[in-house]
Amino acid sequence: MMKKITRLAALLAALALLIPTGCRRKSDDGTVTLKVWGSGEDQAMLGEMIEEFKKANAEEGKTYNITLGVVGEDEAKTRVLEDPAAAGDLFAFSDDQMMDLYNAGALYEITRNKDTIMIENNEGSVKAASVGDALYAYPITADNGYFLYYDSRVLSAEDVQTLDGLLAAANRAGKRVYMDVSNGWYNSAFFLGAGCKLGLTDKGKQTCDFNNQNGVNAGKAIKAFCADPAFVTGNDAVLTGGIGTTICAGVSGTWNAEAIKEKLGSGYAAVKLPTFTCGGVQMQMASFAGYKLMGVNSATKHPVEAMKLAEFLTNEENQIKRFETRAIGPSNLKAAASEAVKSNVALAALAQQNAYGVTQREVLSSTWDPLEAFGTAMEAKSYSRTVEELLNTMVQQITA
Q1: What mean pLDDT is reported for the chain?
Q2: How many CB atoms are closer than 10 A to CB 267?
Q3: Sign of CA dihedral 107, 111, 115, 116
Q4: What is the 3-state secondary structure (H, E, C) of the chain?
Q5: At 194, is the pLDDT very low, low, confident or very high (cuts 50, 70, 90)?
Q6: pLDDT for 29
Q7: Helix-helix angle 163-173:213-227, to 10 degrees
Q8: What is the mean pLDDT of residues 300-321?
Q9: What is the reported pLDDT for 1?
Q10: What is the pTM of this model?
């Protein structure tokens, strides 16, 4: 039976060669159909980029039928894994979704101009987009991290170098210092700064040593911070609403830059995170250096053309366009080195902090809830259990 099928397939293939080109279907006549997923805020910008791509490739004898879909970076993984065949051929996603997408086999390995892409983007973004020596996504941005905004009319550049100095200056001025300590993405800054690590075993299990001695020292620093009269917490609205009045400094990212700049006016300033007292010595607060990436769906019917489009959408010119349109920080080294990017207060602070940034690619989603529980206990000043006990429970839950 198999031989008959093989012979039939060969016969059909031979007959196809005899059919005049003009009689073939349009889909066989050079039409490439691709679907691109991106956030709602990016739709107009992506549409312009796609039209430029079509113009740039008009001479190659192919017709590109490219459609857009609204799927944000935060929900890309969920939507792709629900139905890979119906998902976008290209989709933007946050780097913390990388390993789940890779483990599910949802990402097409990038083979077209791989070395060029790796050379042109910063090291952290390339690492976030890679598994071993293989590249599985295109870096788009290098601005998904956090740093310290402050009111320079209240605080000096020296005040914001250390957390102790920052809190002392805030208390003298009757102001507050904001940080969402109940959010594990932020409170990890203390543990990572103390030298603690998160990682994955060969079998993909989460590892965490936040309960070692350095972690205990970091946990006690968090406890002291939350107990300080100047400390204030809450969601982004607390920061953007209070900065410039009751709040003189706060930890956040570039997404709040415009709101904070408007509130602070001439006092608008930003810098890397401060050092903090940890076990009697000063340690630099670290952070998660977050990146946004563009993946090619492993189920795409046009992998070569999809890679070509993805490379175009994430190249130097279009990363500059993202910055000019939406103040998005580029991962492309030449784009990031432009005077316009370097003179951006928030992005300059983020660049400083990224020197102490840690990729969140190897952080599983199950890590965040235990970290949140610890931070919530510190904010609530719930001291029925010691820091050591709370951290032991937290690590047990993270690594379960």
Answers
A1: 92
A2: 16
A3: negative
A4: CHHHHHHHHHHHHHHHHHCCHHHCCHHHCCEEEEEEEECHHHHHHHHHHHHHHHHHCHHHCCEEEEEEEECCCCCHHHHHHHCHHHCCCEEEEEHHHHHHHHHCCCECCCCCCHHHHHHHECHHHHHHCEECCEECCEEEEEEECCEEEEECCCCCCCHHHEHHHHHHHHHHHCCEEECCCCCHHHHHHHHHHCCCCEEECCCCCEEECCCCHHHHHHHHHHHHHHHCCCEECCCHHHHHHHECCCEEEEEECHHHHHHHHHHHHHHEEEECCCEEEECCEEEECCEECEEEEEEEECCCCCHHHHHHHHHHHCCHHHHHHHHHHHCCCECEHHHHCCHHHHCCHHHHHHHHHHCCEECCCCCCHHHHHHHHHHHHHHHCCCCCCCHHHHHHHHHHHHHC
A5: very high
A6: 61
A7: 10
A8: 98
A9: 42
A10: 0.81
Provide the pLDDT for residue 17.
Answer: 41
**Mutual angle of helices 213-227 and 368-379, in 10-degree steps:** 40
As to burial, measured by CB atoms within 10 angstroms (0-12 exposed, 13-18 middle, 19+ buried), residue 226 is buried
What span, in angstroms and rounded, lies between the C-alpha atoms of 146 and 185? 10
* 231 contacts: CB under 8 Å, gap ≥ 6: 167, 176, 177, 179, 225
- Summarize pLDDT for 348-394 with one digit per residue, the tens: 999 899 889 988 888 888 899 999 999 999 999 999 999 999 999 99
Q: How far apart are CA 320 and CA 342, in angstroms?
A: 12
CB 331 within 8 A of CB 291: yes
For residue 26, pLDDT beyond 80: no
267 with 68: CB under 8 angstroms?
Answer: no
Q: How far apart are CA 323 and CA 133, in angstroms?
A: 29
- Quote the CA–CA distance of 180 and 174 in Å, as a whole number: 20
The predicted-structure confidence for 243-284, as pLDDT tens digits, reads as follows 999 999 999 999 999 999 999 999 999 999 999 999 999 999
Length of the chain in residues, anyone? Answer: 400
Residue whose C-alpha is closest to residue 313's, from 32, 102, 30, 48: 48
| Residue 341, C-beta contacts closer than 8 angstroms, at least 6 positions apart | 323, 329, 330, 335, 347
Both tokens of residue 28? Answer: 């066989």
Read off the tokens for 144. 């998904």
**Which residue is associated with the tokens 């009757």?**
174
Mean pLDDT of 178-189: 97
CA dist., res. 110 & res. 60, Å (int) = 22
- The order of strands in the sheet holding 31-38 is 63-70, 31-38, 90-94, 290-296, 138-144
